[in-house]
What we know:
By secondary structure, the protein is of the alpha/beta class. Helix content is about 25%, strand content about 30%.
Amino acid sequence: MTELKFEKENKFEKEKGDKLKQFAESIRNKLVVLYGAPFVGKTTLAHALTKYFDRTVYLRIDRNFDPKEFKKIAKDITYIDINSPQHLNYQLNEFLRSPPNSVFIVVDSVTSLDAFFMPADPTKQSPLTDKLRARFADSVMQRLAIIKEKNNTVVVIAHEKIKDFESNEIVPRFNVVALRHCDAAYRIVKLNGKRKIVRVLIRETVEKPDFEF
């Protein structure tokens, strides 16, 4: 079992750096989904991973952090603030027109765009709302899978939801069908004071923890 730990200043301990590097190498040139509860450490982990890649493009949808907070653990990041689903579509299409090469791309977080699909009056929500949101998530993942093929590593950050209350199965908070485009999914959980990165079998059950921090 591999362990990763945070210091008080949100730095990963130096002696655990080799294990963080091991995780970075395990996702290199892949499209992965990283999900978990709010404030569990998804954004911090994404920033810590940047030092193992030559260049990072960070699509910042969720504005609950200041990039300055991560200067000490992050490396060579270009931030692009995304304001709407249409803006994300535009940026992904730009990547397809002029593909980046050997870049670490982070989308943080795609589920923060859910509000754009909700009607102003919650009582008017219809099955069409979920259909549009699912179609958007599928389109995003499909294009990211193409972008990944140019030697890029792509991490899509998402919040989580309970899929099945009986089994307590927890999945990313966007249409699970969209996961067919990704290479792997990881959930961050916090147990006994440690954060664990758990590899999730797509459409199956959760495996044992791969990493702890």
